[in-house]
Amino acid sequence: MPFPTYDSPASTKYFPALTGIRAVAAFMVVLFRLNPLVYANQQNIAVRWLNYFIQPLHVGVPIFFVLSGFLIAYRYIDTVELSANWIKQYLWNRFTRIYPVYFILTSITFLLLQYSPAGKAGAWQTPDFSWKDKAVTTLLNLTLLKAFFKTLLTSGLPTA
Prior knowledge:
single chain; 2 domains; 5 helices
């Protein structure tokens, strides 16, 4: 099937420019999160300047979310119904799109924590953190219930 042209009705659901902006916003967040210069010698003017450049890149998160929200709203605006069946189907579609990746990343995170060297995984490696505590923490993270427990807010994938 050929790609739709800009004059076809199918092309109104896709905005190549916004996809590029979302990619730039995602790159900004990755660069901010993986900033190796935070721990570098800040006496060096070049390191300090690059660090000052990287620190504000956290604004990529709201940019990404606003664009994603716009694209979701634009995509579904013609099909919205105020019925229980539509809402149920919409929520199911969102869940099946997002949760599998969340499940995989959370599982990998807890596997890495389990086998990380002692002292490198924080509370996870303390002697009083039993296998039951680890199992409950993992289960609450995988079932999206960790937010109900203040002590678990930053466990697993903190941004989740």
